[in-house]
Amino acid sequence: MRTTRLTSRSKVLATAAGAALAASVLVGSGTTAGADQRDDALEKALAAAADDAPPALQTPFEKSGGATWTTHPQSVQFYRQLDQSSERVAVSNVGRTTQGRPLQLVSIGSPAPKAQTEAADGSVAMFVCSVHGNEPSGREACMELARDLATSTDATVTRFLARTTVILINANPDGWVANTRGNADGVDVNRDYLELATPEGRAVTKVIRDWNPDILNDLHEYGPSEYYRTDLLHLWPRNRNVDDQIHGLSQEMSEDYAAAQARSEGYTAGIYGHYVKDGEPFLQVAGDEQVRILRNYAGLVNVVGMLSETATRPLNDEEAADVRVLNNRRVDTNYASALGSTQMVAENRETLARETAAAAERQTELGASQGGVVYFAGQDDMLPTSSSEVEPEPMCGYQITEATFQEVKQALRLHDLKATRNASGRVVSLAQPNRGLVPLIFDERHEFRIAEGTPLETC
């Protein structure tokens, strides 16, 4: 754990009993990874940067010892100061909310962040910082991670940033100010990555399209209960239309990097949506395949993605007695997950770049040959139960009217999907890198389709 916040909880977990607990936590693959299996050079370098951060570059949360959260205006000022103090940081606006607040994108690189086009052709790690406005720990973790990357003098960090651009986006400032899950219109933005009805959803998908990230970690919080009491819950894309290699790499990042990093710091880690008793999962209550959720959307556009969730309420007596202990654990857990994702990139940069590009080619080829299977339901550990939920003989594309095209053309553009004109309107072919999105947008068999389209046997 970073020594800037060595809480009493940290001291408890340093005991033999705490270490034994951390080492025995069940993860999805049934395996565990400890600190002895990880290269901790990046972790140590960022911890040193946090220790040495000048007062002007400490977040309001840090200055309060974890007693109060950083406000949105304070975060804008913090990133402005970070931009002015470090050549490694650039802050830009990628949209505005319905209440006019900027949707800020922070990019970090060494000796300076690469321009978007150059970065997109290389290695990019993306973090979405608390799309739900009442889940503050991800925002705090992003601010501290940005600061630590920007100010570290360690060669491990500068080498990492020379080869990988890190981008972070605060995805719901209106909800942040109102302390609400949804945006100013009451919409859960994490259910809007297909329709793109919100400016926040449009901004995030535009960043994904334009920056072409290799990995994405979506930082959240959850409400614990009797059998759902883990420091970090994590999950990868579960939609069955995700490319197999992208799915496998996403699960690896989620289990073997993000969760492993949290465990190495003494935290517990488990799979999101699994109720656990005596160390064994006994009920799966969440973790579905919805394309509208960012981790699934990421996989369908060939990004290695995951979800991180940390518990909002106390998990032990110390956290119940001192809100600072509780809040610091929340932030440190999301920071650990983010750090694990950066380590995934550091160790697998070439593999990630190769496989994300290859996945786009595979999806295009599958669409052109009408191969594979199209799923409208089910998830990676659950086959569809009805023939209406799966198409074993995929269509080549969807016919839509010109009027329908005009309604969805902005969404198609943001999803990086093309439509070609014909006598009946437009055809949206499956022979595209983001093939998996097309049936989910237009087919009547998909619960969350956004427009009416007719499947075509031949194009």
List the SSEs and their pairings:
Layout: H1 8-13, H2 16-23, H3 41-51, H4 60-63, H5 72-85, E1 89-96, E2 102-108, H6 116-120, E3 123-129, H7 137-151, H8 155-163, E4 164-169, H9 173-178, H10 199-211, E5 215-222, E6 232-235, H11 244-264, E7 269-271, E8 274-277, E9 280-284, H12 294-300, E10 304-311, H13 317-321, H14 323-369, E11 374-375, E12 390-391, E13 397-400, H15 402-414, E14 420-422, E15 425-429, H16 437-442, E16 454-456
Parallel strand pairs: 3-4, 3-5, 5-10, 6-7
Antiparallel strand pairs: 1-2, 2-4, 6-10, 8-9, 11-12, 13-15, 13-16, 14-15
Helix pairs in contact: 3-7, 5-7, 7-14, 11-14
What does this structure look like?
Keywords: Carboxypeptidase, Hydrolase, Metalloprotease, Protease, Signal, Zinc. This protein is α/β, with parallel strands linked by helices. It folds into 2 domains: 3-359, Aminopeptidase (3-Layer(aba) Sandwich), CATH 3.40.630.10; 374-456, no CATH class. It has helices spanning 8-13, 16-23, 41-51, 60-63, 72-85, 116-120, 137-151, 155-163, 173-178, 199-211, 244-264, 294-300, 317-321, 323-369, 402-414, 437-442, and strands spanning 89-96, 102-108, 123-129, 164-169, 215-222, 232-235, 269-271, 274-277, 280-284, 304-311, 374-375, 390-391, 397-400, 420-422, 425-429, 454-456. Strands 1-2-4-3-5-10-6-7 form an 8-stranded mixed sheet, sandwiched between helices. A 4-stranded antiparallel sheet has the order 14-15-13-16. The longest helix is centred in the last third of the chain and has 47 residues, at 323-369.
